[in-house]
Amino acid sequence: MELERIEHINLSVPEPQLAESVAFYENVLGMTHGERPPFQNPGAWLYLDGHPLVHLSCRPPASPEGSGVIDHIAFKGKDPDSYIAKFEDQGVKFEKRRVPAEQMLQLFLHDPSGVQIELIFEVEGDLSDVKQL
Q1: Which pLDDT score, from 0 to 100, does residue 64 have?
Q2: Closest Cα partner for 127 from 113, 112, 107?
Q3: Is 129 among the domain residues?
Q4: pLDDT of residue 98
Q5: Cα–Cα nearest to 103, from 82, 89, 121
Q6: Beta carbons of 54 and 8 less than 8 angstroms apart
Q7: First vs last C-alpha separation in the chain
Q8: Would you say the C-alpha torsion 131, 64, 34, 54 has a positive or negative sign?
Q9: pTM of the full structure
Q10: Which of 37, 65, 97, 129 holds its CA 20 to 30 A away from the CA of 103?
Q11: Where on the phi/psi map is residue 79: left (φ > 0), alpha (ψ -120 to 50), or beta?
Q12: Under 8 Å CB-to-CB from 71, ≥6 apart: which residues?
């Protein structure tokens, strides 16, 4: 069981500011606006060195989800079953999700101060029974 790196940062933005936010990350920070899976909510992914590092996600203004402006911090991991077993053993509440059109499993949990954490794993096999965002 090990973590490899920060996978991405997801920032909640008001939908009217999405284009402005994309322009900022492209023009000010030099990232590239790129492909994004077909999630139900609007958003954009900004790439750095070919990696989708900043995810912009539009949420309703009164949405209680997430950790404020920074919706969550994601870490890429290996061996999701060991994390699931550890969380269950320690009584840590978590939610399993899957990325649409990808073989990727997500585990969402919160740190003690309420920051949402995502662990994301490339997996093989059927994920049809896992909730899709």
Answers
A1: 56
A2: 107
A3: no
A4: 86
A5: 121
A6: yes
A7: 25
A8: negative
A9: 0.70
A10: 65
A11: left
A12: 10, 11, 12, 57, 59, 65, 116
Q: Is residue 33 part of a domain?
A: yes
Q: Which two tokens stand for residue 109?
A: 């949990």
Q: For the chain, how many structural domains are there in total?
A: 1
Tell me the DSSP string of 50-78: TEEEEEEEE--TT---SSTTEEEEEEEES
Work out the number of other CB atoms within 10 angstroms of the CB of residue 84. Answer: 16
The CATH number for 43's domain is: 3.10.180.10
Which residues are bridge partners to 106 per DSSP?
Answer: 97, 120
Cα distances (angstroms) measured from residue 57 to each of 64, 92, 117: 14, 26, 15
Please give the pLDDT value at position 68.
Answer: 64
